[in-house]
C-alpha cells in the first residue's frame, strides 16, 4: 500500500464515506512501544521460563517434597540430586520449584487483590469529592505513613499465616498507593465532557466510575500492578527470611534462604544460598523491567522512582 | 503559607489519630487477646485476669485508647514484660545505635547516589549510564538480607577481611570504635538506598536540563561544568531533600533487616525479637514512634520544599 492510499482511506473514514475501520486501541499502540524495549521482552521471557520451571518442572523433575530424608541431609550436587539437598534432605532443585510456586502465587495474587481494591477505592474517593474524598484520603495517608514491614511482621505473628492469609496481609499494605494514584487520575477525568455527559443523560455514578473512569486510568493501574508483583514477592521473601512466612512443609524462596543462613560458616554450601537468592532477584528485576516499559508504553507519569 | 501550614498539620493530626486507633486495635487481634499471647499457652486464668486488669484491657476500647494516648503524651511508652525494662529505657539504649547505622548508610549512599545520578543524566544513554541503571535496578530487586548474606560469604567466610557480625556493644562509642565490623552493615544499607537516590537524581536532572534557565545559562556563555553543577544540580537537589523526608519507611525496613542479618543491637533487632516474643508493648510503641517520625518527615519534606524553592507558593 502506498502512502497516498493511506491518506485517502483515512480521510474517507473521517468523513464517514467508508465504513470506518476499528481505531487502533490503546493496547496496540502501547504494545508497539513496549516491544521496542529489549529488557522488558527479556523480562517477559524470564517470567514465562520461571512459570514453566515452577509449575511444569515438578512433573518432569519429580522429587519428594513432603517427607524429610535425613540420609541425604546437605548432600552435594550429583546425578541424583542436581542441586544437592538442604538441611532436611529435600532435593534443592525440587524445593526451588515448590518454593517458587508459593512466591509467585502470593506475589501475583497480592498484587491483583491490592490493585483491584485500590482502584475501586481511589475511583470512588475521587469521584465523590468533597468531605467523603477528604476522609477517604486521610485513611490512605494513614496507611502510607504506617511502616508496612513492621505491621506486616506483627500481623504475621498474630495469624501464623497460610499462603492464602499472607496474600491479604501483604495486599493490605499495597492498595494505599494504588488508591492515591487512581484518585488523582479520577480527579482529572471526572470533569471531562464524556463523564459529564453520562451524568446528564442520567447514568448512575457507579456506571461512570466502572465504564468510563476506570478504563481510562487502566494504564496507570496496570503499571502499578506490575511493580506491586515485584514488591509483593520481595515482601514475602523478607517474611520468609524472618521465619514469619509460610509454615513448613510449605516453603518459599525467602524461607529457603533463612535456613541456608545457618550453614554459611560451616563450609561451602553454595547451592543453599545462591539459587534461591538469584531467583528472587531475577524474578523481581523482570517485573520491574516490564513495569518500566509499560510506563513508557502507556505514557503514565508516576512518582514511584 | 500560614494557612497551608495549619491545614497540613491538621491533616497530620487526623492521620495520627487513625493510625493509633488502628495500631491499638491490631493488638487485640491476638488470638485470646494480647495478654494471653504474652503469657503463653499455660497461663492461668487468674494471671490473665490480673494482667488484663493491670493494662486496663477489661475496659471499653475508647477508655483504653484515651489512657494509652495520655500515658504516651506523658512520656510513658509502656513496659516490656519479656525484657523487664520500660520501653523508654529500651529506646534510650537502642535508638542511638540505629541512628548511627542509618546516618552512616544514608551519608555513604548519598555520596555515591547523587554524583552518579547527575553523571548518568549528563551522559544519558551512554554505556556507563546503562551499566549504572542496571545497578540501580539490581538495588530495587535485591532483597537486602540476601545482599548481606552474600557480602558475609565473600568478605568474611572466604577472605576473612571483615567480621561477619556487627559490633556487639551497648554503647555508641564502642560501636564506632570497631569500624571494621561496621563496614558490611553500612555498605549493605547504602546499596539499598543508593538505588533510590541515583534513580531519582537522574530523572530530576534530566527534567531540569531542558528548562529555559539552562538555555539562558548556556547562551550567556557559562561553561558546561557551571551549567550542570551551578544551576541544574542545585535545582535537582531540592527534590532529593523532599525524597529524604519521604523515605523514612524504606530506611526503617532496611534497618530491621540489616540488624537481623548482622545481629546489630539496635531498635530493628529489638523489634524483631519483640515480634517473636509477642511483646506487644514494644511492638505498639515502636510502630507508633516510626509512624510519627514518618508523618513528621512528610511535613518537613513539604515545608522544606517551599523554603528551598522560592517558586513554590502555598
Task: Give a description of the structure.
The complex is a heterodimer of chains A (305) and B (314). Chain A is mainly alpha-helical and 305 residues long. Chain A has 14 helices and no strands. The longest helix of chain A is centred in the middle third of the chain and has 37 residues, at 92-128. Chain B folds into 2 domains: 2-87, no CATH class; 93-308, MetI-like (MetI-like fold, Orthogonal Bundle). In chain B, 77% of the residues lie in helices and 1% in strands. Chain B is built from 14 helices and 2 strands, in the order ααααββαααααααααα. In chain B, strands 1-2 form a two-stranded antiparallel ribbon. In chain B, strand 1 and strand 2 (85-86) form a beta hairpin. Chain B is globular and about 85 Å long. Classes of the chains: A mainly alpha (305), B mainly alpha (314). At the A-B interface, helix 6, helix 7, helix 12, helix 13 and helix 14 of A face helix 1, helix 6, helix 7, helix 9 and helix 12 of B.
Please state the CA-atom Rg of chain B, rounded to the nearest Å: 24 Å
Describe the main β-sheet of chain A briefly: none
The secondary-structure element order of chain B is HHHHEEHHHHHHHHHH
**Shape category of chain A:** elongated
Oligomeric state of the chains present here: heterodimer
Which structural class should the secondary elements of chain A be placed in? mainly alpha
* Run of helices and strands of chain A: HHHHHHHHHHHHHH
Tell me about the largest β-sheet of chain B: 2 strands, antiparallel
**Helix fraction of chain B?**
over 70%
| CATH C-level name of the largest domain in chain B | Mainly Alpha
Shape annotation of chain B: globular
Task: Please give the structural blueprint.
The complex is a heterodimer of chains A (305) and B (314).
Chain A: H1 3-15, H2 26-35, H3 38-55, H4 57-60, H5 92-128, H6 130-145, H7 148-159, H8 163-171, H9 175-189, H10 193-200, H11 205-216, H12 218-241, H13 253-260, H14 270-298
Chain B: H1 2-27, H2 34-39, H3 45-55, H4 61-73, E1 79-80, E2 85-86, H5 87-122, H6 127-141, H7 144-158, H8 172-176, H9 179-209, H10 212-219, H11 224-246, H12 248-262, H13 267-276, H14 280-308
Antiparallel strand pairs in B: 1-2
Amino acid at each position: 500500500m502506498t502512502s497516498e492510499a493511506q491518506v485517502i482511506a483515512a480521510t474517507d473514514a473521517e468523513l464517514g464515506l467508508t465504513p470506518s475501520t476499528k481505531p487502533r486501541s490503546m493496547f496496540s499502540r502501547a504494545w508497539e512501544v513496549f516491544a521496542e524495549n529489549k529488557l522488558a521482552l527479556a523480562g517477559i521471557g524470564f517470567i514465562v521460563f520461571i512459570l514453566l520451571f515452577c509449575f511444569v518442572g515438578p512433573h518432569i523433575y519429580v522429587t519428594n517434597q513432603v517427607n524429610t530424608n535425613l540420609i541425604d541431609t546437605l548432600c552435594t550436587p550429583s546425578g541424583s540430586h542436581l542441586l544437592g539437598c538442604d538441611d532436611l534432605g529435600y532435593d534443592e532443585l525440587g524445593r526451588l520449584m515448590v518454593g517458587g510456586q508459593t512466591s509467585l502465587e502470593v506475589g501475583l495474587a497480592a498484587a491483583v487483590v491490592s490493585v483491584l481494591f485500590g482502584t475501586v477505592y481511589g475511583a470512588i474517593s475521587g469521584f465523590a469529592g468533597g468531605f467523603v474524598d477528604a476522609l477517604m484520603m486521610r485513611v490512605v495517608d494513614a496507611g502510607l505513613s504506617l511502616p508496612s514491614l513492621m505491621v506486616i511482621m506483627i500481623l504475621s505473628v498474630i495469624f501464623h499465616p497460610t499462603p492464602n492469609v499472607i496474600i491479604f496481609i501483604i495486599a493490605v499494605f499495597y492498595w494505599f498507593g494504588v488508591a492515591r494514584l487512581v484518585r488523582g487520575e479520577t480527579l482529572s477525568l471526572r470533569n471531562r465532557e464524556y463523564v459529564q455527559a453520562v451524568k446528564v443523560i442520567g447514568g448512575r455514578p457507579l456506571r461512570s466510575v466502572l465504564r468510563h473512569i476506570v478504563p481510562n486510568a487502566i494504564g496507570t493501574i496496570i503499571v502499578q500492578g506490575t511493580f506491586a508483583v515485584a514488591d509483593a514477592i520481595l515482601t514475602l521473601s523478607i517474611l520468609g527470611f524472618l521465619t514469619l512466612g509460610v509454615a513448613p512443609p510449605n516453603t518459599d524462596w525467602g524461607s529457603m534462604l533463612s535456613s541456608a543462613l545457618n550453614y554459611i560458616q560451616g563450609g561451602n554450601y553454595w547451592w543453599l544460598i545462591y539459587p534461591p537468592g538469584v531467583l528472587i532477584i531475577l524474578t523481581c528485576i523482570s517485573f520491574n523491567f516490564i513495569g518500566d516499559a509499560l510506563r513508557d508504553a502507556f505514557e503514565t507519569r508516576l512518582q514511584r522512582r | 503559607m500560614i494557612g497551608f501550614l495549619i491545614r497540613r498539620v491538621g491533616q497530620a493530626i487526623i492521620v495520627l489519630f487513625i493510625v493509633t486507633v488502628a495500631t491499638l486495635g491490631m493488638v487485640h487481634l491476638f488470638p485470646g487477646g494480647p495478654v494471653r499471647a504474652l503469657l503463653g499457652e499455660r497461663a492461668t486464668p487468674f494471671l490473665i485476669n490480673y494482667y488484663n486488669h493491670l493494662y486496663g484491657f477489661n475496659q471499653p476500647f475508647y477508655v483504653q485508647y484515651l489512657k494509652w494516648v495520655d500515658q504516651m503524651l506523658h512520656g510513658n511508652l509502656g513496659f516490656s514484660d519479656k525484657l523487664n525494662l520500660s520501653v523508654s529505657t529500651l529506646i534510650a539504649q537502642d535508638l542511638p545505635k540505629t541512628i548511627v547505622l542509618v546516618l552512616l548508610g544514608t551519608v555513604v549512599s548519598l555520596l555515591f547516589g547523587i554524583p552518579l545520578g547527575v553523571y548518568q543524566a549528563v551522559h544519558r544513554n551512554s554505556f556507563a549510564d546503562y551499566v549504572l541503571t542496571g545497578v540501580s535496578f539490581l538495588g530495587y530487586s535485591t532483597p537486602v538480607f540476601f545482599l548481606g548474606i552474600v557480602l558475609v560469604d565473600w568478605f568474611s567466610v572466604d577472605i576473612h577481611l571483615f567480621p561477619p557480625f556487627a559490633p556487639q556493644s551497648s554503647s555508641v562509642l564502642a560501636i564506632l570504635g570497631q569500624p571494621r565490623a561496621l563496614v558490611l552493615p553500612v555498605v549493605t544499607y547504602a546499596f539499598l538506598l543508593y538505588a533510590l537516590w541515583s534513580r531519582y537524581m537522574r530523572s530530576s536532572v534530566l527534567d531540569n536540563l531542558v528548562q529555559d534557565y539552562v538555555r539562558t545559562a548556556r547562551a550567556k556563555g557559562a561553561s558546561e561544568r557551571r551549567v550542570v553543577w551551578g544551576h541544574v544540580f542545585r535545582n535537582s537537589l531540592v527534590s532529593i531533600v523532599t525524597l529524604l523526608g519521604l523515605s523514612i519507611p524504606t530506611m526503617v525496613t532496611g534497618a530491621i533487616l540489616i540488624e537481623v542479618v548482622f545481629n546489630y543491637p539496635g531498635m530493628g533487632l529489638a523489634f524483631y525479637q519483640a515480634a517473636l516474643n509477642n511483646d506487644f508493648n514494644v511492638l505498639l510503641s515502636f510502630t507508633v514512634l516510626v509512624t510519627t517520625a514518618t508523618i513528621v518527615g512528610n511535613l518537613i519534606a513539604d515545608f522544606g520544599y517551599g523554603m528551598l524553592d522560592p517558586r513554590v507558593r502555598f
